[in-house]
TrEMBL record:
PANTHER family: PROTEIN CBG26694 (PTHR37984), PROTEIN NYNRIN-LIKE (PTHR37984:SF5). This is Integrase catalytic domain-containing protein. GO terms for molecular function: nucleic acid binding. InterPro entries: Retrovirus_Pol_polyprotein, RNaseH-like_sf, RNaseH_sf. It comes from Rhamnusium bicolor.
Length: 205
């Protein structure tokens, strides 16, 4: 995977654990799940057979932030959903004409401006609840616990400690994401600052 990414100039960035806000794919999965629930109902065995219909609906629907459908933004024209949408000239061998680059540029610029405005609105809303916390390399912290109940082991997640640790900040990925290691030097993943709190125990002196 790393060799393939290097070949195509792709930068691999890891997102913090249990922080779907930083991963747009997770938000899309949430949309897919909502739509699939309307199709599968009580039969959950063949849910993948509905993916084509759901994907087509997403590609052709107008996006709230961009004001355009994903298909239009990618290909410069709306998707043809019905036979009446096609013309005979569209299927002639010599009738293929490239999309107007001027019109496509206008669409791109409009979408970019809309996304910038949507990002700014989201940023302002998020910052209303954001904690202004910064950790230093080598600092000890506790991280939020995300346990799962295990009936066979008589373990209930709601009774588990809310935070576990301590861990050591081994790398500062960004002001909002930190790589952690336990006290034995074992990697404990990348975590968002919202899931961390300083270790104030007396043994940390």
């Amino acid at each position: 995977m790393h060799r393939l990414a290097d070949k195509y100039g792709v930068e691999i960035i890891r997102t913090p654990a249990y922080h779907p806000h930083s991963n747009p794919c997770e938000r899309q999965h949430r949309t897919l799940g909502t739509m699939l629930r309307a199709y599968v109902k009580d039969n959950h065995r063949d849910w993948e057979s509905n993916l084509q219909k759901v994907a087509c609906a997403i590609r052709s629907a107008k996006h709230e932030s961009t004001g355009q459908s994903p298909y239009l933004v990618n290909f410069g024209r709306e998707i043809k959903l019905h036979g009446d949408d096609h013309k005979v000239s569209d299927i002639l061998p010599d009738s293929g004409k490239p999309n107007n680059p001027v019109e496509f540029t206008k669409i791109f610029e409009d979408v970019r401006k809309r996304l910038d405005r949507a990002f700014e609105r989201s940023r302002q809303t998020y910052n209303l609840r954001r904690r202004d916390v910064k950790f230093e390399l080598g600092e000890r912290v506790w991280r939020k616990n995300y346990p799962q109940s295990k009936a066979g082991q008589y373990f209930t997640a709601k009774f588990a400690p809310r935070f576990i640790g301590p861990f050591i900040i081994s790398k500062c990925i960004s002001p909002w994401a930190y790589e952690l290691k336990d006290l034995n030097g074992k990697l404990s993943g990348i975590w968002n600052v919202k899931d961390l709190k300083p270790d104030t125990s007396s043994s940390y002196d």
